[in-house]
Design a protein that fits this description.
- The structure is a single chain.
- Helix 6 packs across helix 7.
- The chain is built from 15 helices and 16 strands.
- Strand 9 and strand 10 form a beta hairpin.
- By secondary structure, it is an alpha/beta fold.
- The protein is globular and about 75 Å long.
- The structure holds NADP nicotinamide-adenine-dinucleotide phosphate (NAP) and magnesium ion (MG).
- The site of magnesium ion (MG) has 2 residues, from helix 10.
Length: about 400
């Protein structure tokens, strides 16, 4: 069979531990035999990051900026324990955090839905994707403990103007205060990334704040979002999707009753809470994908889980493993599909979709890794090894061939 040609290079970011092993298997068994693709390879394995004083991470981020699409394997974010384990020079910062700031991007998490794993919420039938703002609010807050009566004020001293102040509270006894902030630039980038993602997936965009209570802070977010959505109105109409603003509590109630199939954009704190609500409601970390989208339309795809450290140690002991590769496979197919869409090459898009169908076909036929067994209805009798599952997908993919 002739290989399918991918016109523009895809940036490949390799990673660590169990996911590195899975990553290589996917590439060898599901991608390279069928695609003629120029992969710009960056090894983000923790040892290589250490060896290059982490330059490799920023080079990889720049390459995604240049080529437009990247696929990333999970990586270790080193802590003190990892520094000892891998004899590192220091606790290098999170590669994901660095790439996010290079691309000024927003992360969207999307569950993979199959018929025989029912979400905890009965009405959910299609993915609910959370877009979480990644800057400011309580994560950059400053706080004071008030231990005796006194006045607390917010004071704004412009570089070239008179100061203004508002009273926070006139304390008669002990209490606490916090000051939080956000930036127009960051809110605007966030809005643009969310709009790009909703348009690219052709799903409705919801945005929620609490502007009835916070008439300046939350209302500012609402206004910026509304402006950005208005500017793309023709694109929304062309894609047949809607932009809706809802109060956060209203949106939370609507979300629990909905079928899914929307992007729900939320503030940093709401995103922290609701991404965990939605992820655990849909089932397994092994079935959750993640994509980083920049305001100017660059994409990086990955699995939402980590390097599955415990399984890797079993693997190193020579024990069999049954690690779920679905989210890593979908990182590859998500990137390939996006590349095909941007290049206008339908055969590339169709290839990625056929691989995804082979994955879903296997799961729906009860061919799964161990983590999924307990979630399934009906429950399969056995489970596949890490490699056995990928082989079964490759087999099914070949049988589905044209
Ligand atoms: P993890 O890799 O997400 O795994 C935690 C546990 O979740 C596993 O031990 C396993 O449970 C289950 N699990 C997660 N993914 C699975 C899969 N694909 N198949 C089957 N089970 C799966 O988190 P971790 O082990 O705590 O973290 C390991 C490293 O990952 C850390 O160094 C962290 O820095 C890094 N990390 C990277 C990213 C990223 O690159 N995006 C994200 C998060 C964490 P059982 O052991 O019960 O089977
Ligand atoms: Mg959290």
């Amino acid at each position: 069979m002739a290989k399918i040609q991918v016109n523009t290079p895809i940036v490949e970011l390799d990673g660590d531990e169990m996911t590195r092993i899975i990553w290589a298997m996917i590439k060898e068994k599901l991608i390279l035999p069928f695609l003629d693709v120029d992969l710009k390879y960056f090894d983000l394995g923790v040892q290589k990051r250490d060896e290059t004083d982490d330059r490799i991470t920023s080079e990889a981020g720049q390459a995604i900026k240049h080529y437009g699409v990247g696929v990333k394997c999970a990586t270790i974010t080193p802590d003190a324990e990892r520094v000892t384990e891998y004899r590192l020079k220091k606790e290098w910062p999170s590669p994901n955090g660095q790439i996010r700031s290079i691309l000024d991007g927003t992360v969207f998490r999307k569950p993979i839905i199959v018929h025989n794993i029912r979400p905890a919420v009965r009405s959910w039938k299609k993915p609910i994707i959370i877009g979480r703002h990644a800057y400011g609010d309580i994560y950059r807050g400053v706080e004071l403990k008030v231990d005796r009566p006194g006045k607390v004020e917010l004071v704004y001293t412009p570089t070239d103007g008179p100061e203004s102040r508002v009273l926070v509270h006139d304390f008669k006894g002990p209490g606490v205060v916090m000051g939080i902030h956000n930036l127009e630039k960051s809110i605007r980038s966030f809005a643009r990334s969310c709009i790009n993602y909703a348009l690219s997936e052709r799903i409705d965009l919801w945005f929620s704040m609490k502007d009835t209570i916070s008439k300046k802070y939350h209302a500012f977010f609402k206004a910026v979002f509304a402006e950005e959505a208005e500017a793309r109105k023709p694109d929304f109409e062309k894609a047949g999707i809607r932009y809706r603003y809802m109060l956060i509590d209203d949106a939370a109630a609507q979300m629990m009753k909905s079928e899914g199939n929307m992007l729900w954009a939320v503030s940093n704190y709401d995103g922290d809470v609701f991404s965990d609500v939605v992820a655990s409601g849909f089932g397994s970390l092994g079935m959750m994908t993640s994509v980083l989208v920049s305001p100017d339309g660059k994409f990086e795809f990955e699995a939402a889980h980590g390097t599955v450290r415990r399984h890797y140690y079993e693997h190193l002991k020579g024990h069999p493993t049954s690690t779920n590769s679905v989210a890593s496979i979908f990182a590859w197919t998500g990137g390939i599909k996006k590349r095909g869409e941007l290049d206008g090459t339908p055969a590339v898009v169709a290839f990625a979709e056929r691989v995804e169908q082979a994955v879903i076909g296997c799961i729906e036929a009860g061919i799964v890794t161990k983590d999924l067994v307990a979630l399934m209805d009906p429950q399969p009798v056995g489970h596949q090894s890490t490699e056995g599952f990928i082989d079964a997908v490759a087999e099914r993919f070949k049988r589905s061939g044209p």
